[in-house]
Amino acid sequence: MKTVPHPELTLGLLALVTPITAINSFYAASYFVLYGGTPLVTERVDPIMAPGVIGSNHVHEIYGGSGFQANWDYATAQNSQCNNMGPKIDHSNYWYSALYFHEPGTDNYTRVPTDFQIYYHYDLLPSGEARKPFPHAFKMISGNAMLRHNDNLTDLSTESIRWYCHADKSKGETEAVTQGTFAPGTTGCSGTDGFSSEIWFPFCHNGAGFDISKPTDHVIFGNGPDGTPTHQGGNCPTSHPTTLPQLFMEFHHTVSGFKWSADQNPWVLAQGDPTGYGMHADFASDL
Amino acid sequence: MACTLISRVTFKLVSEAAANLSQVNGWEDGFADQIAVDPNDKTKTVCNVGESGADLSTCFEMLPDDVKKSCTVASALTEDVVGPMTALAGCNPIQSGPATATIVTTCAGYKAGALAAGSTIGASDKAPTTSSPALASSLSMVMQTGMPSNAPVNNQTARPVAPIATASSSPAMPAPFSSSPPSSGGIPNTISVKDFKGATETWIYQGCYTDLIPNRDIRTLKNWGQGATSSDCANSCIAMGQSIAGTENGGQCFCGNTMAQTKKVSDGDCNMACNGSSQMCGRSGRLQVYAKEGTNLGLKKRSNKHRHALNMRSDV
User: Fold this and answer.
1) What are the φ and ψ backbone dihedral angles of A173, each rounded to 5 degrees?
2) How far is A284 from chain B (nearest CA, A)?
3) How many Å apart are CA B210 and CA B214, to the nearest integer?
4) Is B98 in the A-facing interface, judged by CB distances under 8 Å?
5) Per-residue confidence at A196, pLDDT binned at 50, 70, 90?
6) CA atoms of A217 and B204, how far apart (whole Å)
7) How many CA atoms are closer than 13 Å to the CA of B201, on its beta-carbon side?
8) In chain B, whose CA is at the least distance from the CA of A208?
9) What ipTM does the predicted assembly reach?
């Protein structure tokens, strides 16, 4: 069998620097948080990057409306019987690459139980206007499953991702937080919020729909105070002028059942990524 | 009499025209109906959950907590995803980088994913001007493994979905195949099924519809379910998170959340008895459809004064 080039791409180089006079005050903000708990289903299905396929490349943990299926579309999701995020009207689906513990010295992989929160930031623009809603069936991804290094020089995947180990220092644990890759040098993450990860989504839309051959072209990050792209907040460039809500996903991984030492980094994402740089997540809107 | 249209086909490989909707007048539906996105909008509640820590129920009508927590979907595959296991599911050897990883397909025993029944890769709302090269090669890889695109995907088992949170006090998932009491036969007007919470629901007969119209590769209800009668079929559809069930050809079961590409025909067309029952289960090319009351089948209705322009073959 020939190798199929994976359609996931890096986030493209972002738009030109544009002079700005004001930046939307991100922290003055309006947002709400939906809490997902345990997933709707955990399976190798990816309606965005492998539509219609039963058995996509790697395992995802999936949240949201029960209408989720490989052939995801707006109408199907609207007829969801329930959703596991809470608001009745939210039939959207959210998914990300599952995290596994690779027991050191063995061939054993065990899924790390994870729960999920999503923040919808809908703060006003500097002009005072409200953000625009997600178009029906809007699809986007953040991050790059195939990335295995820090891409800060070329892209915003790494900058939009954090891995945390919140330590209980009374147990001699080491706190660690890293951009893009698994936090090293830890032995246990028993502090409040424990072992967690997070990722920001782009939100500047050019009006186009999702195109699987160019999956990150239609929505990009905003520009910060210095006019260069930033992972959090910012103003949308003229190439992508529609400001959508900015999504922020946060994951809490229950690692209390696992044992590892400071020189080991036993975490692996479902696509075979032992670095954490390949963290990525998907959103398919069905409000 | 309703005149059905071919409803939206699932897949879009090219830019979606629909993406341009809903941008004109601000928030048109969804959570903007329920909260004031603009703080100066006095007609709606300002949702201050983020800042004030107020409960989400002050912003949105929320599902009951037990419904939310027990909301799960049966996996479309039967592989282990929890472990401990000796390799990650799929073909995902460890690639540590720093070079960008590649897709590998040469793992022992690995079979590429198959298209779900009813998948319409290649179709679009409008004729695609280009097809995605990545998707086309994915499709050709699927074809090379000998899995035709419209073959039933055998690993779509409609297993009962167990709640993961064992601490939940909500009832366990219903047994999927509990039939309703035998009726006098024919086409029951209503069937009794169990929902996620184990409560009994009544699903209502929606009519006899064609399947595989007009394109023989596209099923009206996309997912294969299980069950010998309409009740069994509906129970397995609920377990898959689907709200529409259709039996066909005396014992096939299909599930979906919307119906595509079909037309309603005379009830008399659904006249093949289910295996071992006096009830009917559709016929060859005919779906006997049930859905929960109020479900939107996804069929567009037109005035019966018009016949729409699409070709409607009646000879299937």
Assistant:
1) -80, 155
2) 12
3) 9
4) yes
5) very high
6) 45
7) 23
8) B15
9) 0.87
